[in-house]
Amino acid sequence: MPELTALGWGTLGLAALVIGLSKAALPGAGTVAVALFAAVLPAKQSTGTILLLLIVGDMFALWAYRRHADLRALVRLIPAVVAGLLVGVVFLSFAGDDLVRRVIGVLLLGVVGVTLWRRRATPAGDPRPHPIAAAVYGTLGGFTTMVANAAGPVMSMYFLSMRFPVKAFLGTAAWFFAVVNITKVPFAVGLGLITPPGLLIVAVLVPVVVAGALIGRRIATRIPQQLFERLVIAVTVLGAVYLLLPF
Predict the structure, then answer these.
(1) Number of Cβ atoms within 10 Å of the Cβ of 75
(2) Could you read off the pLDDT of 9-53 as tens digits, one per residue?
(3) How many CB atoms are closer than 10 A to CB 41?
(4) Residue 1 domain-assigned?
(5) What does DSSP assign to residue 69?
(6) Which of 53, 51, 57, 66 is nearest to 24 (CA)?
(7) What does the alpha-carbon distance between residue 143 and residue 95 come to, in Å, rounded to a whole number?
(8) Within a domain: 179
(9) Inside any domain, residue 85
(10) Residue 164 zone, left/alpha/beta (φ > 0; ψ -120 to 50; rest)
(11) Model confidence pLDDT, tens digit, residues 123-148
(12) Tell me, what's the pLDDT at 1?
């Protein structure tokens, strides 16, 4: 078992709870979990460990919201996401932890700004994405999920631009991340991001992820659409700002 302090385990436990909540109720909050893991483990090591916990959350979200997904919206993203994943693999081969944090933080803030502008510029009754927008969101989603498991905020902004209702948002996100995260596992193994100590941490934290997902599902059935959208934007901005802080 990895040698962690009580505070370290507590921080990881909180991060695991946030992962469950993010998958079942509040997409984008996963960035907070990424930040918490990075505060306890080296950034690259935490990437592999948190990936496996995200997959656990994905499986729960698929079970809970599988009937609400808009799969056609996902099919449009496939080529761009694959391209982003490959760019992320190359980036990870030479980038240090600090550079990873800064790049992801800047990208997230840029995506938030563009999404809010597009929502104002696009009529509410016309949610169809421009092909270029889908390509950009997809590429950034693939890149950020590969280098830092931080595609949640990027794809949340894409789904916000599509004006999905809460359950359609969560169901579509569940399918997207289940496929993408499972696809990332061989790359993560090849890059040495998944380690035996990391697997032990995952085994301990799986029940916490499930507990967070159960709580999140109850929240999702009650949260108003407008509040849901505002929370998604808020946690995305907070996560981006954290990544840009000098520590």
Answers:
(1) 9
(2) 999 999 999 999 888 888 777 777 877 887 788 766 787 888 899
(3) 22
(4) no
(5) -
(6) 57
(7) 13
(8) yes
(9) yes
(10) beta
(11) 554 455 567 777 888 888 888 777 77
(12) 57
The pLDDT-based confidence of 211 (bands split at 50, 70, 90) is very high
Count of residues in the chain: 247
Enclosing domain of residue 44:
6-244
Question: What's the structural domain count of the chain?
Answer: 1
Token code pair at residue 107: 């990208």
Residue 40 is assigned to a structural domain of this protein = yes
**Which long-range CB contacts under 8 A does 5-14 form with residues at least 24 apart?**
8/40, 9/204, 11/36, 11/39, 11/40, 12/36, 12/37, 12/40, 12/201, 12/205, 13/205, 13/208
Percentage with pLDDT > 70 across the chain? 88
In one letter, which amino acid is 57? G
State which amino acid sits at residue 211: A
Angle at 172 between CA 239 and CA 213, to 5 degrees: 60
